[in-house]
Amino acid sequence: MTQLSATQVLRDNHKTIRGLFRQYEGVRRKTPEMRDGVVRELFMMLDVHFRLEEEFLYPLVAHTGSEPGTALTDDCEREHASIRALIQGLRRRGTRDEFFDTGFTNLVTTCEEHLAREEGELFLLAESELAEALSEDGLAESMENRRKALIAAPEYRDARPEVVQNPHGGEQMRKIPGERKAG
């Protein structure tokens, strides 16, 4: 099995988040009853992802003392705060508010710009300056374990990725994003 680096774990999170953006667009039009579940899951995944970056990647990059690294992590933390504020505003509105979709579109645009910046600048800088540390035995595994622990927290009980509200009643089970088959 190929060992993942810390930045690959975060890139995988980005794919999950982008998938949830697309999923929202699909349920918004076809099954509006499922919007709440997708939105709760997205907000949870963004929070968990930001916490992983803030707990693992940003301190590593800041520890190098490089000016570009410090500036990028500072900017990314400000972007996290901005996205969290957008999420709080959307939570207050609720998915049935007439202006929710406009706010959601703003959130998607802001997130996409942030994710692209991380992938195009921060991750590349980290990989060039911290290649050994990012591939260190146990770092990616520690991040995955932390992700699972955060998702299991009681505050996310209604947003866990394995459960989505089925518009016909009950719950619909599906694959947990980021889970890998053993083997």
What does this structure look like?
It is a single chain. By secondary structure, the protein is mainly alpha-helical. It has one domain. 70% of the residues lie in helices and 3% in strands. It has helices at 6-30, 35-63, 67-93, 100-129, 131-134, 139-151, and strands at 163-165, 171-173. A two-stranded antiparallel ribbon has the order 1-2. Helix 1 runs antiparallel to helix 4, helix 2 runs antiparallel to helix 3 and helix 2 packs antiparallel against helix 6 (139-151).
List keywords for this structure.
about 180 residues, mainly alpha, two-stranded antiparallel sheet, 6 helices, globular
SSE topology:
Blueprint: H1 6-30, H2 35-63, H3 67-93, H4 100-129, H5 131-134, H6 139-151, E1 163-165, E2 171-173
Antiparallel strand pairs: 1-2
Helix pairs in contact: 1-2, 1-4, 1-6, 2-3, 2-6, 3-4
Helix content: 55-70%
The structural domain count equals 1
Which outline best applies?
globular
Tell me the strand percentage band: under 5%
Strand order of the largest sheet: 1-2
Helix/strand-derived category reads mainly alpha
Radius of gyration computed on alpha carbons? 17 Å
Low-confidence residue ranges: 167-177
| Main beta sheet strand tally, sense and closure | 2 strands, antiparallel
Question: What would you say about this model in short?
Answer:
By secondary structure, the chain is mostly helical. It has helices at 6-30, 35-63, 67-93, 100-129, 131-134, 139-151; strands spanning 163-165, 171-173. The longest helix has 30 residues, at 100-129.
